[in-house]
Amino acid sequence: MLVNLLEYVMIRLVELYSFLIIVWCLLSWFPNGINSALGEFVDRLVRPYISFF
Q1: What is the pLDDT at residue 3?
Q2: How many domains does one find in the chain?
Q3: 34 and 28 in contact (C-beta within 8 Å)?
Q4: Residue 9 pLDDT > 90
Q5: 53 in a domain, yes or no?
Q6: What angle do CA 40, 12, 15 make, to 5 degrees?
Q7: What string of H, E and C letters represents the secondary structure of the chain?
Q8: Structural contact between residues 21 and 49, judged by C-beta atoms closer than 8 angstroms
Q9: Is the pLDDT assigned to residue 2 strictly greater than 90?
Q10: Is there a contact between 24 and 43 (Cβ–Cβ < 8 Å)?
Q11: Are 9 and 34 in contact (CB under 8 A)?
Q12: Do residues 23 and 42 touch, judged by C-beta distance below 8 A?
Protein backbone atom coordinates (compact mmCIF):
# COMPACT_ATOMS: atom_id res chain seq x y z
CA MET A 1 0.00 0.00 0.00
CA LEU A 2 2.75 2.47 0.93
CA VAL A 3 4.72 1.54 -2.18
CA ASN A 4 1.69 2.21 -4.36
CA LEU A 5 1.20 5.59 -2.75
CA LEU A 6 4.85 6.52 -3.23
CA GLU A 7 4.73 5.36 -6.83
CA TYR A 8 1.60 7.44 -7.45
CA VAL A 9 3.13 10.55 -5.88
CA MET A 10 6.37 10.17 -7.85
CA ILE A 11 4.51 9.74 -11.13
CA ARG A 12 2.40 12.84 -10.44
CA LEU A 13 5.51 14.90 -9.56
CA VAL A 14 7.22 13.87 -12.79
CA GLU A 15 4.09 14.77 -14.75
CA LEU A 16 3.92 18.16 -13.04
CA TYR A 17 7.59 18.85 -13.75
CA SER A 18 7.13 17.81 -17.38
CA PHE A 19 4.23 20.24 -17.63
CA LEU A 20 6.40 23.01 -16.15
CA ILE A 21 9.07 22.31 -18.77
CA ILE A 22 6.45 22.64 -21.51
CA VAL A 23 5.22 25.92 -20.00
CA TRP A 24 8.83 27.14 -19.83
CA CYS A 25 9.32 26.32 -23.52
CA LEU A 26 6.13 28.10 -24.50
CA LEU A 27 7.01 31.16 -22.45
CA SER A 28 10.38 31.36 -24.18
CA TRP A 29 8.60 31.94 -27.51
CA PHE A 30 6.90 35.13 -26.33
CA PRO A 31 8.70 38.43 -25.88
CA ASN A 32 9.25 39.01 -22.16
CA GLY A 33 7.48 35.74 -21.37
CA ILE A 34 10.32 34.51 -19.16
CA ASN A 35 10.61 37.98 -17.59
CA SER A 36 7.04 37.92 -16.28
CA ALA A 37 6.28 36.85 -12.72
CA LEU A 38 5.05 33.45 -13.91
CA GLY A 39 8.04 33.10 -16.23
CA GLU A 40 10.54 33.85 -13.48
CA PHE A 41 8.88 31.35 -11.14
CA VAL A 42 8.86 28.60 -13.76
CA ASP A 43 12.42 29.47 -14.78
CA ARG A 44 13.66 29.04 -11.20
CA LEU A 45 12.10 25.58 -11.06
CA VAL A 46 13.10 24.35 -14.52
CA ARG A 47 16.51 26.01 -15.11
CA PRO A 48 18.54 23.64 -12.85
CA TYR A 49 17.35 20.64 -14.87
CA ILE A 50 17.64 22.33 -18.26
CA SER A 51 21.18 23.54 -17.52
CA PHE A 52 22.41 19.93 -17.62
CA PHE A 53 21.73 19.95 -21.35
Answers
A1: 87
A2: 1
A3: yes
A4: yes
A5: no
A6: 55
A7: CHHHHHHHHHHHHHHHHHHHHHHHHHHHHCCCCCCCHHHHHHHHHHHHHHCCC
A8: yes
A9: no
A10: yes
A11: no
A12: yes
Q: For the chain, how many residues are written?
A: 53
Tell how far CA 30 is from the center of its chain: 17
Q: Has residue 41 been placed in a domain?
A: yes
Domain that holds residue 39: 2-48
Supply the pTM of this predicted model. 0.84
Provide the pLDDT for residue 29.
Answer: 94
Using alpha carbons, select from 49, 48, 23 the residue that is nearest to residue 36.
23
**Residue 33: other Cβ atoms inside 10 A:** 16
Q: What pLDDT, on a 0 to 100 scale, did the predictor assign at position 22?
A: 97
